[in-house]
Design goal:
The protein has eight helices and no strands. It is mainly alpha-helical. The longest helix is centred in the N-terminal third of the chain and has 37 residues.
């Protein structure tokens, strides 16, 4: 391997410096973009962000809608963000929370039966979050809470469905009962 000449070292140094400058410019551009998003979030995001906006900004908008009590709009905004990323899981969890809140309000109203589908949807969303992240304790707690409001049919009463297991056997083992066959 030949020794590098001073001229080659100088070229390598200028190349490294140019790469560092380019990285700094890109990082500054990204930082400025994030600062603009944070300013919009602090301002309350009065208007709906466009669908091409970053997911974080749309998530903040959905959270603001939920804070203002616009549950349906918040659920719709969260549903668009639900994917396999951490932000998608958070959106699914928050949408389930909104469904459960709506169900609690409906249970206290004149139409408590309308809360049942919302509870079932919330439970399905919590289960999906737990499938993707089994250590999500808030989702586990809220799922248990939803289960208390509306238990699953399997968990409710195992004896309620169908005849007992030995029902047919009881009739065939009784003594002295002729079934009409030899």
């Amino acid at each position: 391997m030949a020794l590098m000449t001073p001229r080659t070292r100088l070229r390598l140094a200028w190349g490294a410096l140019a790469l560092l400058a380019l990285a700094a410019v890109i990082d500054g551009w990204r930082w400025q973009d994030k600062q603009r998003d944070n300013a919009m979030i602090r301002a309350g995001i009065a208007e709906r962000p466009d669908p091409t906006a970053r997911a974080e900004l749309r998530f903040a908008h959905a959270t603001e809608l939920a804070r203002r009590g616009e549950h349906e709009a918040a659920i719709d905004a969260y549903r668009v963000l639900q994917d396999d990323s951490a932000l998608g899981r958070a959106a699914r969890y928050n949408a389930a929370n909104q469904l459960l809140l709506q169900a609690l309000v409906l249970r206290g109203s004149a139409l408590p039966g309308q809360a049942l589908p919302l509870i079932e949807l919330a439970k399905a969303s919590y289960r999906e979050v737990l499938r993707q992240d089994p250590e999500h304790w808030e989702a586990r707690y809220n799922l248990e809470r939803a289960q208390r409001l509306q238990p699953d049919p399997d968990d409710a009463d195992p004896d309620a469905g169908g005849p007992p297991e030995n029902a047919e056997r009881a009739a065939t083992t009784m003594r002295g009962v002729s079934r009409g066959l030899p």
